[in-house]
Amino acid sequence: MFWMQYAFASKFMPTAATDQASQVNNLYSFLLISSFIACVILIGGMIYFAYKYKRQSLTAKSAYITHNTFLEFLWSFIPLVIFLVVFGWGWHIYHQMRQFPKDALEVHVTGKQWAWEATYKSGVRTANLVKVPIDTDVKIILASNDVIHSFYVPSFRIKQDAVPGRYTAVWFNANKLGDFHIFCTEYCGTQHSGMIGKLQVVSREEYDKWLEEEAKFSTLPIAQKGEKLFQIKACSGCHSVADASVKVGPSLFKKFGAKEELTSGDSTGVDENYLRESILNPNAKIVKGFASGVMPSFQGQLSEDELSAIIEYIKSAK
Ligand code: CUA
Prior knowledge:
Number of strands: 12
CATH superfamily of the largest domain: Cupredoxins -  blue copper proteins
Structural class: alpha+beta
Strand content: 15-25%
Strand order of the largest sheet: 3-2-1-5-8
Largest sheet: 5 strands, mixed
Number of domains: 3
Distance between the termini: 71 Å
Number of helices: 7
CATH class of the largest domain: Mainly Beta
Mean pLDDT: 88
Shape: elongated
Helix content: 25-40%
Bound molecules: dinuclear copper ion
Radius of gyration: 30 Å
């Protein structure tokens, strides 16, 4: 059928990155095209007949027609058939979505105000990132820490509530590499709209390598973890830690426990809370000789664990 070949809806729907998403596109194309044809027949027919049979004069009388059994049967039966096709088709796709494949790769994903936390079988945990291999059945087991959230991946056409006190699940098999959005589609508080995650589909080799590296990372001593994060989050581009050289921002070498002169004329002791504030709200205190508004805030981009690790790394630079 022509709409299957051209998947009309795929022109304006989000990328379809699973086979089921393509099937949803096909059904959606069918709905749109059949609705369009019905609309043309109905509205076009109405306009045509209103014009053709308009009253010719004030005294003219129109034909007295009460009903037409055959026509009435047709305009009830044809839509019924179309609706049954749509129902059967939709049920077929839905059934596939709810039929969980055996031996799927399972990932626990927990919604909380306001982030998605993923936990892999090996113990690896990620925030707002679910990394999966391509062409693999993946089952996401959902839970919530607080209120109802909803796990939505538009490119996979899957959506499922994460409900506190019970597990729910979705599955998919991605057939395209790339980064796809995870949205929360259940209003869950002030930062609901910011509860955006990334679903990353990578090759099997890349996935295995990543999982291995992450597993190593999670058992690193806290300061070493901080050192890695310092690279990953690009802190190292602006701050030196190993020596006192000045880059874009002040060096952090031997800074912990020292005093820092500020542009305001005050001075401050460098302790954990000063470092925390400087990472989350960099413009609160500006070190003398440096400009305000240069460093971006890392508010919402670091978990408490990551923040502590970075601070421990800075503390270790002595
Ligand atoms: Cu979580 Cu909206």
